[in-house]
Specification:
Blueprint (H helix, E strand, L loop, with lengths): L10 E3 L2 E5 L6 E8 L2 E10 L8 E8 L4 H18 L5 E7 L3 H9 L3 E6 L8 E7 L8 H11 L4 E10 L4 E6 L9 E3 L6 H12 L8 E8 L8 E11 L14 E7 L1 H7 L2 H12 L5 E3 L6 H6 L1
Parallel strand pairs: 5-6, 9-13, 12-15
Antiparallel strand pairs: 1-2, 2-3, 3-4, 4-5, 6-8, 7-8, 9-11, 10-14, 12-13
Helix pairs in contact: 1-2
């Protein structure tokens, strides 16, 4: 059985006080008192095992009255206590994704969004937030930018290229992980430009080095078949001899074969999004920005 912890002195920030409640060696609980009224609770829980000496989690419960700013002050006091008095080097919290006040309070207190902890069934997914002891102060410029950047949406970016032979056919890749053929290219890495990512992908997957001649279009792809939406940058890779495919060294884990395709073969074998793109490109030059039409979604249609 865990022995009761030694009483902790009240933690104060002007008219906001965290008063210790009953706890144990691995748990530190506080009642949050604001202007003389109890408005909620905060608890610090050590991680299991040896990691608990340096790591822990925080949870809280506030009434609807105080708002995010007051709640964030209470959380900041608890975080400072965890670092300064308990010797923790990391603290984290899991907040329901549908709790905007809790998420805002945690962010203002200096915790950064780090990901999503999925929940089974109809249970709400939890947003994972964390702060480490050497993070910059939350109200410094560096700290504010880091917290804001961590909470911004992440958009998937794809780079693909239109490479033609001298007969006007387009190169498509026969992929190992889906039935439809697609333009060469792939997902752009974090911190990598779309053009640089495309060149890298073709070096890795086809064993060739290409020159990016310019942007054909930026195609927004709506969500489809469990994939989130994405921004697809399509680049012109110029015209080459058809025999170039004989020099290619395919990454067999992803590329089964490559094919020069006229528009009829594109319609027969390519993804719907690629077919729509190349049909539109055959009619006239594409605008710099366009939105791909929504395609039939087998996952969504099956659920109906």
């Amino acid at each position: 059985m865990t022995e009761p912890a030694e009483p902790t002195a009240s933690l104060r920030d002007d008219d906001l006080v965290l008063e210790p409640t009953s706890g144990a060696d691995d748990l530190h609980g506080f009642a949050v008192v604001y202007g003389g009224d109890r408005i909620g609770t905060v608890a610090l829980q050590h991680a299991h095992g040896k990691a608990g000496r340096r790591l822990g989690s925080m949870r809280w419960n506030f009434s609807s009255g105080p708002g995010a700013m007051v709640a964030s002050r209470a959380l900041r006091i608890a975080v400072e206590y965890a670092f300064d008095q308990l010797g923790w080097t990391r603290i984290e919290a899991r907040v329901p994704a549908d709790d905007p006040l809790g998420l805002r309070a945690a962010s203002i207190a200096g915790l950064r969004r780090e990901g999503i902890a999925r929940s089974p069934g109809d249970a709400e997914d939890l947003v994972l937030l964390g702060r480490i002891v050497d993070d910059p102060p939350a109200f410094s410029r560096e700290g504010f930018v880091a917290i804001l950047n961590a909470g911004l949406p992440r958009k998937r970016v794809i780079g693909q290229g239109v490479l033609r032979d001298r007969d006007g056919r387009v190169l498509l890749c026969e992929l190992t992980y889906k039935r439809e053929w697609d333009l060469p290219g792939g997902v752009v890495e974090v911190g990598e430009s779309p053009a640089t990512g495309l060149v890298r992908e073709l070096e890795e997957e086809l064993g060739i080095t290409v020159e990016v001649n310019g942007l054909v279009t930026m195609n927004w792809l709506p969500p489809w078949s469990r994939w989130d939406d994405a921004c697809l940058f399509v680049f012109d890779l110029g015209v080459v001899d058809a025999e170039l495919v004989e020099q290619m060294v395919l990454q067999r884990t992803e590329i089964a074969a490559v094919h020069w395709c006229d528009l009829d073969l594109v319609r027969e074998r390519a993804t719907l999004a690629t077919t729509e793109l190349l049909e539109s490109l055959a009619d006239s030059p594409l605008p710099a920005y366009r939105e791909a039409p929504r395609q039939p979604d087998p996952v969504r249609d099956q659920a109906r």
